Amino acid sequence: MSGKNISTRVVHAGEPRPRIHGAIVTPIFQTAMFETAGNAEYHDVKYSRLNNTPNHDVLHGKLASIESAEAALVAASGMAAITTTLLTVLSTGDHVLFQDCLYGGTHDFVTHDLADFGIEYDFIDGNDPGSWEGRLRPNTKAIYVETMSNPLVGVSELEAAAQFARAHNLVSMIDNTFASPINFRPAEWGFDISLHSGTKYLNGHSDLISGAAIGKADLIERVRRRLNHLGGCLDPHACYLLHRGMKTLALRVERQNENALAIARFLDEHPKVSRVNYSGLETNENHARAKKFFDGYGGMLSFELNGGGDAAARLMDRLTVATVTVSLGGVETLITRPALSTHQGLSAEHRKNLGISDGLIRLSVGIESIDDLIDDFRNALNS
User: Which residues, including other chains, have CB under 8 Å from residue 151's CB and lie 6 or more apart?
Assistant: First the structure.
């Protein structure tokens, strides 16, 4: 019994029963292989590269439980999970629909690599479901969206995306990294596969790289077999760190939700800030959708200053609590300019069309004292 509440399940779900030699914490199985005896097929062999050690099993059970899904799979990185899943669902000659504002790494894979596999794609406006059918082709096999877009933190018509997929026999995929399972559980809204960079909120401590795919059992099993061949496995020690980090997921995200909303309100009222992108603000164009879908508005926001890129550079240089870096989701408050980091691979014209200006600042809010965080931004802005 792991409990009904997600705060309980994130601690207890997936844990081995009986406990391994009574250990409260699942030990690290730092071994490349296990004794074998007449396994039915290759994918059943107990071998660390095949993602089936006890450390993997615990994570798979926990991840599936907290997203109310049938099965889960961890991978060596978020991009390993994303690319392996896409190359499982799609084959040569297929076509896929992508939300138009994607994480930079995903966008680069779509625009630079998919064609090499003979896979076609179109971008769609996530806020305009009425336009999606016009992009359908006879060979369309999937639709891919993000819970909150990176870095503008937009919220698409998520329920409509899952319904559209069912109506047209497509596989629905969603990158749920920004929201985390605490704020949004895609399976509960009808999505087939949820994807995560476990580096971010799932682990939360900025000390490992990992990814996850969560969803319907038959699809996850197909992804597992493809991942076994591609080799993007998560090693047992990284599994242990991710497992440990996940036990505080609910506490961390709840605090990050609170802190982000407070900072968003502070920035929104500051005269030197021209725009704040955060769906928790009642004036935000995404607020109604976010309120409908999410249990919390998340720890991610972005904003722009009146002085553009130069002002953004000065602000980031003067912050003392927030750290300038490219990642997100840690207990530390992290800040970056997407045009110079995560979305640098996009052309300047494409960034402009998406609304990613050179001065856009993305903020991943941590669990520090909200008073200290607001003082840090107040001092940096006023100086």
Answer: 302, 338, 342, 343, 356, 360, 362
